[in-house]
Amino acid sequence: MKKAALGSAIFSERAWAGVARRLRLSRRELDILRGMFDGLTESAIAAGLHISLRTVHTHVERLHRKLRVTHQVALVLRLV
Predict the structure, then answer these.
(1) What is the pTM of this model?
(2) In whole angstroms, how far apart are CA 54 and each of 16, 58, 59, 61?
(3) CA distance 10 to 55
């Protein structure tokens, strides 16, 4: 997914790698989380990653459970 002047750009690639390690995220989970951090819809994330909307939705549900949050805002705040 291309990252041009998006919210996720405030963190370096190294910082994102650290987030993935600390939260034990897969590469795909991290990609989806970054899309969410950028404020993209699940449809936009799916299109950007060339995967189905259902796959993105499944990853989002798993991220909610893994990070123990109930909505997208809490998920993004959990990063910070």
Answers:
(1) 0.83
(2) 24, 6, 9, 11
(3) 26
More confident residue, 65 or 80: 65
Q: Which of 27, 25, 31, 39 is nearest to 76 (CA)?
A: 39
Measured CA to CA, the distance from residue 20 to residue 46 in angstroms comes to: 20
- Smallest CA-to-CA distance from 53 within 63, 64, 41 is with 41
* pLDDT tens-digit series, residues 7-17: 888 889 999 99
Q: Which of 36, 43, 46 is nearest to 80 (CA)?
A: 36
Contact 75, 39 (CB under 8 A): no
Q: CB of 51 within 8 A of CB of 1? A: no
Helix (H, G, I), strand (E, B) or coil at 63: helix
76, two tokens:
């993004």
